[in-house]
Prior knowledge:
By secondary structure, the chain is α+β, with helices and mostly antiparallel strands. It has 3 helices and 8 strands. The protein has a single domain, classed as Jelly Rolls (Sandwich), CATH 2.60.120. The strands form 2 sheets. It has a 5-stranded antiparallel β-sheet with strand order 1-8-3-5-6, covered by helices on one side. It has a 3-stranded antiparallel β-sheet with strand order 2-7-4. The longest helix has 14 residues, at 57-70.
Amino acid sequence: MKSYKEELHICTSRRREYVNITPKVEAALRKSGIKEGLLLCNAMHITASVFINDNESGLHHDFERFLEKVAPEKPHSYYEHNGYEDNGDAHIKRQIMGREVVVAVTDGRLDFGPWEQIFYGEFDGMRDKRIMIKIIGE
């Protein structure tokens, strides 16, 4: 069994943003040479997420609207966590959207269902963050 690890670095231009990272994940899979196995992709920060869904801007707007209803950014005083930082909402949003995805690798390709893509969800952005890709298999 082989393993391969790669880190992606990302810095969003807004506090909250959704970025399609599927092409970068597919590039890492090609570099790995692994044809059959599993790929793990996870956000390495507690205010960011990696998730699978449709690449449709209306849906991303719906995520944003839903998350703001559940965990609004303001007022900052609403969150006990906020003191040194003002990102209590971002921690909750990450819990809802999830930390990572695992995708089967079949014949050297990500084994997706229709319309599935991998996204990085940023909830406290405008600074450097990392995404880890770990692939195991043959």
